[in-house]
Write a structure and sequence with these properties.
- There is one protein chain.
- The protein is mainly alpha-helical.
- It is built from 5 helices and no strands.
- α1 crosses α2.
- The protein starts with 15 loop residues before the first helix and ends in a 6-residue tail after the last helix.
- About 0% of the residues are buried.
- The mean pLDDT is about 85.
- This is CopG family transcriptional regulator.
- It comes from Neoasaia chiangmaiensis.
Length: about 140
């Protein structure tokens, strides 16, 4: 009997969409999800022959290009939104008279601290507002 290499267990966290895709592939092929992931990782880390390797690399680059395009679009929308908000804020809010300025600055500092706390909580949950606005598609 030959000595068999013992497999090591690893825990990973996957996006729910990717996890579903692995489960569906395993069901279609009547294999375990572990084998599907192992095969995919082996293909990813194995040097590819010229023709198939170039095609796989091309597909990966195309996918990355689409993701970067979405990222560029999202950042542009965010910058434009912020610029419009700042312009609107500056036009609609005249400067305060000097006697009220100190009190307003103190209140603004307090409100800003609350905003940072709320932002920190929101970011720690992993939820993003832009995710609420449109569904993500990874094609």
């Amino acid at each position: 009997m030959s000595a068999r290499r013992k497999k090591r267990q690893m825990t990973v966290y996957l996006d729910p969409v990717l996890s579903r895709a692995i489960g569906e592939m395993a069901t279609r092929r009547r294999q375990s999800g572990s084998l599907v992931v192992e095969t995919a990782l082996a293909a990813f880390f194995t040097p590819e022959d010229d023709a198939a390797g170039e095609a796989a690399t091309g597909r990966r680059l195309d996918r990355m290009e689409r993701r970067l395009g979405r990222l560029e679009r999202d950042v542009g929308i965010g910058v434009e939104t912020l610029a419009m908000f700042i312009r609107f804020w500056m036009v609609s809010n005249p400067p305060l008279p000097e006697p009220l300025s100190a009190a307003a600055q103190a209140q603004a500092a307090e409100r800003y601290e609350r905003f940072l706390e709320m932002l920190g909580r929101r970011l720690s949950t992993g939820q993003r507002l832009h995710g609420d606005l449109r569904p993500e598609t990874d094609s």
